[in-house]
Give the backbone structure.
Amino acid sequence: MSWQDRPFEHADEAISFNFVQWVNDGGSLEPRADKGGFACPVDQDIPIPGKAARIHHRGGSTTDVIFTQELSAAILRTRFAWVKDGLRVAEYVDGARGKLQAVGYVVGADGAPVPEPVMLTFTGLASREFGQVRRQFTQSVRTATKGKAPTYAFWMHLRAGEVAMAGSTQQSPITTVELAREVDPDQDYLGDALVDAIPWPDVLAWADAWKSPGPNGTGVMHESDEEEDDVPDPSNLPEKAGAPNYQEGTVEWASEIPLPFDGNSVSKGTPLGELSDNALRYIVEDKARQFPKAAKAARILMRARQEARQEDGEYEPPF
């Protein structure tokens, strides 16, 4: 059969970026590390800070990388999927593993931003850890800027945290990811030049590419790196796939509620805590009847931000 006559089930990914992968187990590295961190294949020529190392994959192959336990990143968008047998599936099924990717800028070894966006890839339990850290950073930015600037405009300083044992059948080491410090808006601002250079059409096309099932795609050095002994609890899914973990009615709960529709500049599934004040007001005023749960969460977040501004000496009329 000619390629002209063959029906192709899957199209190419719309946009792809070079990637930096989160490594859970420092023991898979040569030389051995006390815990995991960020690893970038050397053939991608992304000049992240760190040292030369070699990752030993479960299948016996190896990849030469630059490895670091600290990395500064400015996250523009994220996307999440359940992956099973090399394919993204629409929802959690037995045997699936979570995969979260974040596209943005990183600070290079010379202290300057790497000029092109890259992907950070987290699989399994690490994807949930990173999602929680990013929400924490979002709240920190909202507080520090009084809601006047978006999260992506600031560097998020990440580092490898504690090593925990995880797994329902066989325990294996998992390195958590955590914030190295709180945001300082004046010190951590990307600068006008970099913000103006963000290729939003490519970034948004990249985020939209995972809205339907398809091939696993790029972002990992070896498929076996996405396998874990731990089976996720379907009642405790990441923000785009299920319900938040906090008590309903709290700010934490409201921050994790996913946006139930696509907006002009944000994708469906984005946690409400990452939205601007104007976006939250739009949900309350125009979408409350259609999405009452999201509207309730938006009201909680608007009220919390108003109270934070009043504590700082600013006054705003009640909603």
In short: The chain has two domains: 19-226, 251-311. The longest helix spans residues 125-145. The first strand starts at residue 19 and ends at 23. DSSP finds seven helices and twelve strands in the chain.
